[in-house]
Design brief:
- Belongs to the TACO1 family.
- With 236 residues, the chain is α+β, with helices and mostly antiparallel strands.
- The chain is 42% helix and 23% strand.
- It contains eight helices and eight strands.
- The strands form two sheets. A four-stranded antiparallel sheet has the order 3-1-2-8.
- Strand 5 and strand 6 (167-173) form a beta hairpin.
- Helix 2 (19-37) packs antiparallel against helix 3 (45-56) and helix 2 (19-37) packs across helix 4 (61-71).
- The longest helix has 19 residues, at 19-37.
- The protein is globular, with a radius of gyration of 18 Å.
C-alpha cells in the first residue's frame, strides 16, 4: 500500500464528523460549482461531483435542489477559495483550505487562531510545496480486479488504487480529475464520491503532549465556518 492508503487510513472518521457542518460545506461547494459552470449537472462536471458527495454524506435531495436553485439567484454570495499556510507548534506545517464571501474576516480569524495557539501564519508558498495535491474517487467494489484496473487507469493519471470496507478508492494527481471522471462515467461505473486532498510528503512524529498542542490549534481552525479542510505534517 502507498502513501495515499496510509493517509486515508489515518484520517478516516476525522473529516466532516459533524453532519450539519458537512452540509454547510457541501452547500458552499454547490454555490461555487453553479457560479462556475451553471446549474445543469449534465453540462457541469464539478456540480456532478458535488452532488455525488452530497449523496455520500446522506444530504437530502431536496436540500441539494434548494442549494442549486439558490446559487442561481443574483443576490447569493459568491464564495472564493483561499489557501492559508503556516506552522503549528513543534514545527508542524499546516495547509488550510477555505471558501469565503468575506476575505478580511477569514484572514483575521485564521491569524487569531495561530496567535492564540503559539503557531505562525506563513506567507504564500511557505508550506504548500510539502504536500502533494491529489484527486480521489470512490466507486463500488463489484468484484473489480484492482490490478487490472490499475493498469488500465494509469493512462488517465491514476497512481494508486486500493480497496477498503466502503469500496474502491482511486488516487491521482489533482490535474487528472477530469480525465478519470470522464472515463469512469463512459464505462458506466458509479462514482460514490470524489474530491481533492493534500497528502504530506513527509510527516513528523510527536509526543502525546506535543500532539495535544497541535490538535488544539487544528480544532480551533476546523470550527471556523469558512474552513473547508485542514492538512498537516504530523504523524497520526
Amino acid at each position: 500500500m502507498g502513501r495515499a492508503f496510509e493517509f486515508r487510513k489515518g484520517r478516516k472518521m476525522k473529516r466532516w464528523s459533524a453532519m450539519a457542518k458537512a452540509f454547510t460545506r457541501i452547500g458552499k461547494d454547490i454555490v461555487m460549482a453553479v457560479k462556475e459552470g451553471g446549474p445543469n449537472p449534465e453540462a457541469n462536471s464539478r456540480l456532478r461531483a458535488v452532488i455525488q458527495n452530497a449523496k455520500s454524506a446522506n444530504m437530502p435531495k431536496e436540500n441539494v435542489e434548494r442549494a442549486i436553485k439558490k446559487a442561481t439567484e443574483k443576490d447569493t454570495a459568491n464564495y472564493k477559495e483561499q489557501l492559508f499556510e503556516g506552522y503549528a507548534p513543534h514545527g508542524i506545517a499546516l495547509l488550510i483550505e477555505t471558501a469565503t464571501d468575506n476575505n478580511n474576516r477569514t484572514v483575521a480569524n485564521i491569524r487569531s487562531y495561530f496567535n492564540k495557539c503559539n503557531g505562525t501564519l506563513g506567507t504564500q508558498g511557505s508550506v504548500e510545496f510539502m504536500f502533494d495535491h491529489t484527486c480521489n474517487f470512490r466507486i463500488p467494489n463489484n468484484n473489480i480486479d484492482i490490478e487490472e484496473m490499475e493498469l488500465e487507469f494509469i493512462d488517465f493519471g491514476a497512481e494508486e488504487i486500493f480497496a477498503d470496507e466502503d469500496g474502491i478508492l482511486i488516487y491521482a494527481p489533482f490535474e487528472s480529475f477530469g480525465a478519470i471522471q470522464k472515463e469512469l462515467e463512459s464505462r458506466g461505473i458509479e462514482i460514490l464520491s470524489s474530491g481533492f486532498e493534500r497528502i504530506p510528503q513527509i510527516t513528523k512524529k510527536l509526543t502525546e503532549a506535543e500532539m495535544a498542542d497541535v490538535e488544539k490549534l487544528i480544532e480551533k481552525i476546523e470550527e471556523d465556518d469558512d474552513v473547508m479542510n485542514v492538512y498537516h505534517t504530523m504523524e497520526e
